[in-house]
């Protein structure tokens, strides 16, 4: 590797082409599950349970972005403005945060919660990590139920207000659902009815992860 590439890698925290091959730097071969669903469908709630039972590490892209805002990083204000508008943050920023978190986590199994959200997220993730997801867990829930959950979540999220929630639903419909359909056409989507009580949803999720374990997926 040339000095220039090494320098770029140390500054930007990403691997050069020759290091890729489906692995993170340090030759880490990883399993990735994308956890998708509308705002308030229960992604974070279910991920916490999957971590406990199946030993994955949970990376929420929304949480990583919120950490950037809190840390007062270079992009913090822009990220905050985008989030308050229910818009998506540029993929380069989100993917680098995910990549860095994966590199810093001593595990080879990751749940990417709320990622990818659009086609640009997918393209950037593939380009920078060369990782293909094992499968997509899709939490299917009607907007009416998700709205009720978000308005009573009470975690101090500025985007949990009815105007922003409507914008987030629109982004989900227009940018994220087409991705779910794309992965479904490749047989990669495991869809769960998420409008039921948490324990019932988790029963379905457990079946999916147990079967993935058996198949070595
Ligand atoms: N199956 C469920 N039934 C009832 N309430 C639920 C269920 N799953 C999650 N909740 C509650 O709904 C709220 C939203 O859940 P959660 O934060 O897990 O959703 P999310 O998909 O991660 O949302 P976001 O996309 O906004 O991050 C939380 O208050 C959570 O406790
Ligand atoms: N891949 C992502 C994930 C999240 N964001 C932004 C936009 C979302 O409205 C916000 C909150 O995400 P959540 O915690 O609900 O998953 O974060 C993004 O731009 N790109
Ligand atoms: Mg969440």
Automatic annotation (TrEMBL):
The positions annotated for binding a ribonucleoside 5'-phosphate are 66, 87-89, 114-117, 157, 168
In short, the EC number is 2.7.4.14
Grouped into one coarse class, the protein's main location is cytoplasm
The molecular function terms of the Gene Ontology recorded here are: ATP binding; nucleobase-containing compound kinase activity; phosphotransferase activity, phosphate group as acceptor
The question of whether Repeat is a record keyword is answered with no
Quote any Pfam family the record assigns.
Answer: ADK
Question: Gene3D superfamilies annotated for this entry?
Answer: P-loop containing nucleotide triphosphate hydrolases
- What does this chain do? Catalyzes the phosphorylation of pyrimidine nucleoside monophosphates at the expense of ATP. Plays an important role in de novo pyrimidine nucleotide biosynthesis. Has preference for UMP and CMP as phosphate acceptors.
The family database entries (PANTHER family) matched by this protein are listed as: NUCLEOTIDE KINASE
Q: Which HAMAP family match?
A: Adenylate_kinase_Adk, Adenylate_kinase_UMP_CMP_kin
- Record-linked NCBIfam families: UMP_CMP_kin_fam
Domains (record comment): Consists of three domains, a large central CORE domain and two small peripheral domains, NMPbind and LID, which undergo movements during catalysis. The LID domain closes over the site of phosphoryl transfer upon ATP binding. Assembling and dissambling the active center during each catalytic cycle provides an effective means to prevent ATP hydrolysis.
Task: Please give the name of this protein.
Answer: UMP-CMP kinase
Source species of the chain: Coffea arabica
Protein encoded by which gene: LOC113703344
